[in-house]
Amino acid sequence: MKTRFVTLSLLKEPSAYLPFGMALAALMLVLGHALVFGVVHETDEGAAAHIWQLLMAGQLPFLAYLVIRRLPSRPWAVMQVLALQATVWLANFAAVYWLT
What residues make up the domain containing 87? Predict the structure, then answer.
């Protein structure tokens, strides 16, 4: 009997890979901004902060669609995608916390 515990075949659907890509883009934006400009405590938020906020908030409709559409039929696969997404979200918030 062959058992696979991690099957991320659901990542082939746009409602799964778009939020993941947006979260990775947001993380690269934070890290790239810190590399280029250094860790600077600004009084006003710049364009990078606003783009990061839009990328993070823009994922929510895609994730809601994924949960509503796929959770009843494939709960284990959806939970794996959500766990992967939560990991990238935690990396984003950790980077923002430590670099700003």
Answer: 14-36+47-99
